Amino acid sequence: MRADDLLVETIDRLFAEHCTPERIAAAEAQGSYDHQLWEALEENGLTLVGVDENRGGSGGTLHDAAAIMKASGYHAAPVPLADSLVAARLMTQSSSKNSSPDGGSLPGLGGVNVALAGRRIPWFEQASGVMGFSDPSILTIERVGKNYAGEPFVVLASVPPADQNVREQLALARSIQMAGALQRVSDLCVQYAMEREQFGKPIGKQQILQHYLAQIAGEAVTAQAAADNAVDLMVVGVPGDEVTLAIAAAKVVSSRAVGTVNKLAHQLHGAIGYTDEHRLQLWTRRLWAWRDDFGTESEWGAVLGSALTSRGSSALWPLVTSWPPATD
Amino acid sequence: MAVSDITRQTVDTMPSLSFPPGALPARTETLRANVRAFLASEIAGGSFVPRCDTWLSQHDPAFSKKLGSAGFLGLPWPKEYGGHGLSALDRFVVVEELLAHGAPIAAHWVSDRQSGPSILKLGTEQAKRELIPGMVAGEIFFSIGMSEPDAGSDLANIRSTATRTDGGWLLNGTKVWTSQAHNNHYFIVLVRTTPLSETGVKHQGMSQFIMDLRGPGVDIRPIRLLSGHHHFNEVVMTDVFVPDHFQLGEIGHGWNQCLGELAIERSGPERYLSTFPLLSALIDAVGPDPSTEAAAAIGTLVARLTALRRLCISVAVSLDAGHEPITEAAMVKDLGTQLEGEIGEIARQLVPPGNNDVFDRLIEDAVLSAPGYTLRGGTNEILRGIVARSLGVR
What we know:
The structure holds 2 protein chains of 2 kinds. Chain A is mainly α. Chain A is built from 11 helices and 7 strands. Chain A has helices at about 5-20, 20-30, 35-45, 60-75, 80-95, 165-195, 205-235, 240-270, 280-290, 295-310, 315-320, and strands at about 115, 120, 130, 140-145, 150-155, 195-200, 200. In chain A, helix 1 (about 5-20) packs parallel to helix 4 (about 60-75), helix 6 (about 165-195) packs antiparallel against helix 9 and helix 8 runs antiparallel to helix 10 (about 295-310). Chain A is globular and about 65 Å long. Chain A starts with a helix and ends in a 7-residue tail after the last helix. Residues about 95-105 of chain A have low confidence and may be disordered. Chain B is about 50% helix and about 15% strand. Chain B is α+β, with helices and mostly antiparallel strands. Chain B has helices at about 5-10, 30-45, 55, 60-70, 90-100, 105-120, 125-135, 195-200, 255-265, 275-285, 290-320, 325-350, 355-375, 380-390, and strands at about 140-145, 160-165, 170-175, 185-190, 205-210, 220-225, 230-245, 245-250. Residues about 1-15 of chain B have low confidence and may be disordered. Classes of the chains: A mainly alpha, B alpha+beta. Chains A and B meet through helix 1, helix 6, helix 7, helix 8 and helix 10 of A and helix 1, helix 2, helix 10, helix 11 and helix 12 of B.
């Protein structure tokens, strides 16, 4: 089970072209997203991947949508693409639920959509469509702000009745974005370790830094694996709360990886990596922000842990061995 | 060069993942159900009590023989030699069930994991006929003959030798850390067949042989662990005769053959499941309504475990497809063996010793075995070096 290779290639090329450090910085300075990139994504139908074509989407699988989210993290794409992909999919899926404004095809589908999942809502003011509340116009904004990466959010005056599913889907989206960003930090560290010379040789020749690089790469790969488990289970459609638990596991592993990876990556980069001139911060700041979005590792760890303890030890191993789902 | 120029240099395309998506085939689910049923009945019948780290420390020939009779050993091996003609993924399923249930599997462990595959790949026809059926039956057991007093992480520094004699070879030297040599029948031993003074290259001139551990000239001396447990040994070889048909592979190719063995040795589920029986017991020990902190700690361990298992399956699928995921195996072993140790560290804090004898013994197993997790089969420092090399910095 994997994403379409051509799609991955296309999205990767598109992001690489648009997501220059200058463009990312400009979007941040404006407190918004990169409209030129968003238009390019829309033209290619990439904002609606994973949404059925007969509901106004671009088709494609959940694996395709996940691959796009990962690429957006890898390239620090200054667009609310992951949130929008989640919102668009939920909107078209939930026509029977009252959490959707009017079901079916929705205002904002094709624009930037935002899903409500608590009081602090990323990209709220930039959105043309809102998911998760029957009448967005009555929502009161208490204050606006930016996260560590300069991505805008609002804090609502009151907590709308949150659909737990919305929060889960957004937590998974962040996990996937983090997997991409962690991979990028890993790549940047390898590159810097080979280029930067001290004591007459590349710093990557120092054994301790080689070990940092191995640890960083390992954390990135583990975060990806945890997210992949959750996506696979969603695609297969397992009964009960297993998808929720796999998403919890994904958010735990990715959020937890950030602490280790950012610390080692900055240590390895020295003073230059701590400045805004160096692009490492484009990813480490996002990672610091995203690990707190939609639940920290402790919150999701407790969700998974309480489910396990309430079921008792006999349920543990059967659960462990049902991820990833077997294939034919 | 200006700083902005440095920062503009790009690595703007995503590298392909070295861990292809891997899942176990659905057909293995029947086999899994069979192993689970077998283990449930063994536990109910009092055949064993689940322990940690059983693949090295719990040597039970009778249990291994039961597994052999039940058809759970030699699964991927050809039927021609008594094997079951299945795949390495079928073995993966059986092995992870045995580990997770804390079954006593040290007797056949090395034989089933690496000696059998090595003999089938490199051994003489006579060796295959003589040894493989007994290995499948759970009656012939192997140890590993690699490390020496001066050759630990630097394995190529071995000094043991084999010299030519009528109809075979005479082996001399000392092997150490030879787990279960005092209980097992053979080991596959790495020795020099050409002196270093002649090759001038450390990694050349080595060969592998199958050596009878109970033959004349073999002196097996116990090395007790800090726990008092005895599985390590020193094996001193003095003119030990090995017949030609127990030569393994080609003379002079021992080093590369060993590396192939290590890829298999490093990639299995025993590299993250050694303390799973403790994790499982921990869930009942904290009870159904733990504190949020305790729940989060347990949830975090299980979250990491499930991610590592996915990576481990990916490596197994890759190995089964004929690839050599040496780096990936090293990475999974580094991460998995750290998790094994942390399970003990978390468990002892959530349910301190003194509350429950059975649980206390599992913690004791886990804590006192902990130094071994990140040493055996290649230290984590060596493993990180392997990963760093593949990243291009070494």
